Amino acid sequence: MPSVADILIPLALDNAYSYAVPAGMILAPGDVVQVPLGPRETVGVVWQVTESAGGSNLRPVTGRIEAPPLSDPLRELVDWLARYTLAPKGSALAMALRLPDEAARTETSRVGVRGSGKPPSRPTPARMKVLAVAEDGAMRGKSALAKEAGVSLSVVDGLIDDGALEAVALAPEPVALPPDPDHERVPLSEAQGEAARHLIGLAFPSGSGKAPTILLEGVTGSGKTEVYFEAVAECVRRGRQALILMPEIALTAQFLDRFAERFGTRPATWHSGIGARRRERLRAGVAAGEVAVVVGARSALFLPFRALGLVVVDEEHEAAYKQEDGVHYHARDMAVVRGKLENCPVVLASATPSIETKVNAERHRYSHIVLPERFGGRRLPDIHAIDMRRDKPEKGRFIAPPLVNAVRATIESGDQALLFLNRRGYAPLTLCRACGHRYQCRNCSTWLVEHRFRKALVCHQCGYTERRPEACTECGTFDNLTPCGPGVERIAEEVAELFPDKRVVVLSSDFPGGAERLRAELQSVADGECDIVIGTQLVAKGHNFPHLTLVGVLDADIGLTSGDPRAAERTFQLLQQVTGRAGRGEKPGRALVQTYQPDHPVIAALLSGDATRFYEEEIAGREAANLPPFGRLAALIVSANDRETAEAHGQALARAADPPDGVMVLGPAEAPLALIRGRYRFRLLVKTDRAVDLQSYLRDWLKRGPKVRGNVKVAIDVDPQSFL
Ligand code: ADP
Ligand code: ZN
């Protein structure tokens, strides 16, 4: 009997399409194939194969594609993801397939050059310099050779054309060398050793059974990384693969080095910045089981592991794990799902776990391992508030006198100070003192942020940039534009006035020169090559600066006023992380926190160091308000090219909501960011009891609701993290 294959195509389609399997072709679920779609050929994945007599009118599968097949658990993950997020199944598949796209940077093949022994036709001085270097016969990269000879690349190219140098294609660098689980173990502290044994015992039990999810909670500097490395080592010893997810992969050079110290080689890395060819080789290596450990950003979760034995989600509380466009998914939650489907243990590591994870641990859905103290007997920093109502900064300044004095004392004793402000640029708002005009983005409802070094006003939402005008564009008055409020650049100006001759560095995502230079700069900070660091959240996370003994938080209140139900949690986590940068080396650290509301529960918890109480109160508050994880949330974001259309569609949706018991639908309300990239936005929020089948309700509602027409878009965000 002929077979019919249901093929899922990685486009925004909800269902698999049926194709005839040509005689002689044998297909199994998971195979990657080429199929006709309309007038084109496209790639798809076999979802199901059935014997059927009625398939004669179907178009046939064109052929098979050389690509690793998608395993059962991976296809189940795709189904799960689509069902949970309400994304089209094809869009969910696209994440697991990730075929090389043209847009991706392709890697140039590696070429080495060496002298051919033939003399050059024209012996110019520059050419002779190159040949002198190449005389030793060693193989060098073209640019390395040019650099060593102190000439431009074109001289080297000329010599290759001339035949005096020969170019040889080099074998591609292996995607990763095998990590050695027994390479070198630093002696663990007693607490670490016990935690590691406990972790391995839970993750790799002697009997069979359901693999657990484990919360590894340890204060900043407790040495969690070394502990979960032991679990990774055990996983590798058992011949299985480990995946370590990280929130900001581009900046983890320090982490990769630590991995290399422990395992003798750097791990394979996976993130959006790697070239298409390398990506394919890595996928193939992962599918063949040759790559033992991958460190990656959230999309690494969809790699075709052959024998996944452990997933670690480092800094599990990080909001960066939530993808906010396309398929709205949370990589931490999907990691737990993948662990279930593969029956492999999942470790969630954090100093400041999310409320969701904390509740899961308390209710024994997750196991829980705690490292309550810093490694090596180091103390957590003492944290004090500076009450900005009493200790005001001088007029036009932002650093209060007690903090100025503390910075002075710190750098005088040869240590480093970090001033933390989570605002990029010079000033978050610019206005004209003559007419009051405020500079706003023309595509978004945001203020333009002044970037003084670039002499520009920039929208942080869409990137729109204009030159900072000399005269007000509204009233024409010259030299009357005033910056309002501080960004890190403005703090740098103040610090330069207060501490001339000191070495100051500003670290934010605007750092010129890209990730590579930023990494170098972070390293030089760690090496003690600057006195004062001024930084955004970029410096708050994960880095180890051994010479840093003082952290000053310039505005602890920034995050507390938003309408976000996670505002308190987010602020607590961020402040805990940033103050936790202090005193990680030999000397103890301290933190000073500028605030107008020292009695606010979040600030009070931070000052007292009583994280337990903070979590207790926050969890009780969530439970009382029926907020996650006790109730469930979903957001619908309606957008259109004009305000009326977006609002009308939102209202029509609300009229069709018809919420049953246990479901509440709020809105439509104009989104706080009412305009982004020229699109007007309205939000609806769905709140349900935990027992409600949220996805079924949403699906039925959207089916009943108004048809999406013209330029209207409705984005569905289950478990929203952002409310903007
Ligand atoms: P966490 O992730 O819990 O904040 P880390 O794992 O980054 O902590 O460890 C904090 C610091 O202590 C790092 O500088 C690390 O190199 C050091 N450290 C941790 N464990 C050990 C150990 N067993 N021996 C030596 N140094 C350690
Ligand atoms: Zn904009």
Short description:
The protein has 724 residues and is an alpha/beta fold. The protein is built from 19 helices and 30 strands.
Structure explained in plain terms:
This protein has 724 residues and is of the alpha/beta class. Strands 11-12-10-13-14-9-15 form a 7-stranded parallel beta sheet, sandwiched between helices. Helix 15 (567-579) runs parallel beside helix 16. Zinc ion (ZN) is lined by residues 441, 443-444, 446, 459, 461-462, 464.
Distance between the termini: 55 Å
Low-confidence stretches: 100-108
State the helicity in percent bands.
25-40%
Largest sheet: 7 strands, parallel
Radius of gyration: 29 Å
Q: Give the integer mean of the pLDDT values.
A: 91
What is the subunit arrangement here? single chain
Q: Give the strand tally.
A: 30
